Amino acid sequence: MKKSRRGRISSAFPNVRLRRLRTTPAIRDLLQETRLAASDLVTPIFVQEGIKKPQSIASMPDIRRLPLAGLVDEVEEVLKLDIKAVILFGLPAKKDELASSAFDKEGIVQKSISTIRKYFGDKVAIITDVCLCQYTTHGHCGLVTNRKVDNDRSIATLANIAVSHAQAGADIVAPSAMMDGQVQAIRKSLDQAGLPETAIMGYSAKQASPLYAPFRDAAHSTPEFGDRRTYQMPLSNAREAMREVETDIEEGVDIVMIKPAIPYLDLIYKTRQSTNSPICAYSVSGEYALIKAAALNGWADEDAVTTEFLTSIKRAGADIIISYQAKRMAQLLARH
Q: What predicted TM-score, i.e. pTM, was given to this entire model?
């Protein structure tokens, strides 16, 4: 016998048998509490300037860098799977210390946005990553002064990038640099540019994680010196992460993000308990690579693990999930 919450002896068993609710697939489906849908998912797309055919990425099997000419086919495939959103990452042909190509009207992301909008109109939500790391020679997420990332110089550049993306037709700009004040600067610049309807999805609590390594391989964005610990979050500090989320909300962010996802389910849950703002979770490249490596070696069922990981992210409280497994997950959902 068990004691109830009020201290009384409970004789629930054998009258109460919770296994009755698991006896058949139909009953389990009827009582399923957390449901994933393709419309919850966002597909990341790498678009590289100056290449003519897709390039494979060694650390991310089945993910490719695409030429601009391959973008329409990719988005068409995404839409056929009932995924409604993509997030674009640009790889420029030229880099400099000021990340000039990041806010060039003829830049790779700007051209990608225009191409998607031309062919698909409003059928797909276009999210763009707003950062400097792919565009700078030093590989840091902000501008560098005397070998240190200069926060206040950087936010002006981030705002310029966001405006250029919005002018090209982006629905949502997503600043990922983790600079203090970046959301406020971007909101002000978008409004002044006559773009008040462009939404901001902040990388609000972005951890300094080793799980980004495959992405840095894919995006050619490894820092030339030092690391990103002076601006990305320490993995041990949940309260500080909540301060970052609160600050983004105060600055006018429309959607908050926790990144990575699986090691930080507690932060997703804490954020869900503290705000009614939409929450995005980014299941990052390292999470993808771990699943893929295990599956390729026959150590894990890729579909089962992917389903479990993404369901747990949604169960923790995420409304939106960015995942390199988005297309595969959408195919699985369509079968069921």
A: 0.94
